[in-house]
Specification:
This protein has helices at residues 5-24, 61-68, 180-202; strands spanning 28-33, 36-42, 49-57, 81-91, 94-101, 109-120, 127-133, 144-146, 149-160, 163-173, 214-215, 218-219. It is of the alpha+beta class. The longest helix is centred in the last third of the chain and has 23 residues, at 180-202. It starts with a helix and ends in a 9-residue tail after the last strand.
Amino acid sequence: MNKAFIPLFFLIFVLISSTTLAQEYEWEFKKETHGIKVYTRDIADSNLKALKIIMEVDISVNAIMGLLMDTKSYPEWVYKCSKAGPVAVNSVLNTVDYYQIDFPWPFSDRDLYTNTITSIDSETGVITSTSTGIADYGPERPGFVRVPTHFNQWIITPVSPEKTHLKYFLSSTPGGSIPDWLVNLAADQGPIKSMQAFFKLASCSPYAESQEWLSESGPVPPTQKKQD
């Protein structure tokens, strides 16, 4: 099979699966913290939960995308993420990134590769960024358990120049022998802490000064966005 086709195949498979799940399981509202609404739903043949977060923030799309595409910054805001960064650029808005996640003792830390595809609706300005785990990409590292399946998606809708509506979806299995209750506990606490840290960081320099996040040649690094 053509290697370039594999990430696309997995993305199609996950999106079809997600559509099927939407028909079988309804989202259940769990809580709201500082305007961050959290929903969960069951996953077929699993005790784990899928997650949906909805929020509206007084932060520009440019600042949000500047931070979201700066994967090296992820340890600063993603819950328990100790290392992150790009490993391959397939196209302007199609990248492969690597992450390491801290797990509490006595469990092994996790790592994963994701293929992230970002698209923009030219009429509405809505941005969709979808990351799919690639379990067999890259070498296995001593001391880490590879995450077998992972899917997350951002739907980013501009409301005004300084206000943005966000939807975030997450479905992931950590692999190895981890109690379901521990995984669901992390899924309950982690996203709220991540989102709060994300918005705090996006409100700071250099992201807050972002005037554009995408040029004809590709994503603009945050350090280059500040205007003279």
